[in-house]
Amino acid sequence: MIRFENDYTEGAHERILKRLIETNEEQTPGYGMDEHCEKARGFIRKECEAPEADVHFLVGGTQTNTTIIASILRPYQGAIAAESGHIATHETGAIEATGHKVLTLPSEDGKITADQVKELVDAHWRDASPEHSVQPGLVYISNPTENGTTYTKAELEALNKVCEACQLPLIIDGARLGYGLASPDNDITLADYARLCDVFYIGGTKIGAMFGEAVVIINESLKKDFRYLIKQRGGLLAKGRLLGIQFETLFEDGLYYEVSKHAVDMALILRQAFVENGFALRYDSTTNQQFPILPEYVIAELSNNYSFSHWEKVDARHSAVRFCTSWATKKEHVEMFVNDLHRVCIRS
């Protein structure tokens, strides 16, 4: 079985494994205070052109989102997000479990707009008794989105502008940030992220690391006591160097960008094959996630040898499915799939 259902089916890039073995018997301080974490912070600050940024390493995406959001919001505030946003759909109510409501906005492609944010905030404050409803406290987006789509720099700048006007921190879930950076449609750099948002994180779990996310805090007012929140939320890893070594390896010579581009290149081969065989795409994604709409008989045939995710039923005989490539996807597996797709289509 060749697996395309997600981008964390494999372990870690061989260079990371090599570095972990090489440093295995080093004795270092714990909790992210070692030299490997400090080197990784330096590399990330340089890439972001943000020398004053605070950089913290956590283990996984849900833990990272809940820690960031809990550190920002007052008890009566909520997080604005797309209705398909990760915190609204795939984190088992983790944000609500911390006492904060997710205030969702409708979205066809996974993105939200500056106008939508302003309308929601204005509606709250127009209410004669606003204290009876959850106050908007921050704006959350992911880039790429759950649907593989990406924000443009202009869209991010517009969100930044409205967030500043409404005094709402803008946070960006970057679990797949590298795959967004590698998209041929992308016009945003890490330096742009540092300029246009208050907090974002750089995903490692889905992009070559065994595990780990790097939180980058830009807004000075949000830096204070963040390590206390990490500890309280169970995220302060005693063997913190395991995180630092991974991000040090990913960023010391561009490996993060290299493996991200590979995944996107593989996904675009799949995209082309779906289009050439006459299949529509549910979302216009040029990242590592592709969402073809396939007949049920094609899905059944392909499922004999390939694993991928069911996304949504489109009609009685068609469903949108998700194919997800990763830093480790083999080109020969992609080519094998393309040949099998052609064969199934010709035979039908």
Query: What general outline do the C-alpha atoms trace?
Result: globular
Mean pLDDT score, rounded?
96
Element-level helix/strand string: EHHEHEHHEHEHEHHEEHHHEEHEEEH
From the alpha carbons, calculate the radius of gyration and give it in angstroms: 21 Å
Q: What is the strand tally?
A: 13
Distance between the termini: 23 Å
Which oligomeric state applies?
A: single chain
Largest sheet: 7 strands, mixed
Please give the count of helices.
14
Going by helix content, strand content and strand pairing, the class is alpha/beta
Q: For the largest beta sheet, what order do the strands appear in spatially?
A: 2-8-7-6-5-3-4
- Helical proportion? 40-55%
Low-confidence parts lasting 5 or more residues at pLDDT below 50?
none
Q: Beta-strand level of the residues, as a percent range? A: 15-25%
SSE diagram, text form:
Elements lengths: L1 E2 L10 H9 L12 H14 L5 E5 L2 H12 L4 E6 L3 H4 L4 H4 L4 E4 L8 H13 L8 E8 L10 H14 L3 E4 L3 H5 L8 H7 L2 E5 L9 E5 L8 H7 L8 H11 L3 H22 L12 E2 L2 E3 H7 L3 E2 L1 E7 L2 E7 L6 H17 L1
Helix pairs in contact: 1-11, 2-11, 6-7, 12-14
Report on the architecture of this protein:
The structure is a single chain. With 348 residues, this protein is α/β, with parallel strands linked by helices. The protein is 42% helix and 17% strand. The protein has helices at 14-22, 35-48, 61-72, 86-89, 94-97, 114-126, 153-166, 177-181, 190-196, 226-232, 241-251, 255-276, 296-302, 331-347, and strands spanning 2-3, 54-58, 77-82, 102-105, 135-142, 170-173, 199-203, 213-217, 289-290, 293-295, 306-307, 309-315, 318-324. The strands form three sheets. A seven-stranded mixed beta sheet has the order 2-8-7-6-5-3-4, with helices on both faces. Strands 9, 10, 12 and 13 form a four-stranded antiparallel beta sheet that branches. The radius of gyration is 21 Å and the shape is globular.
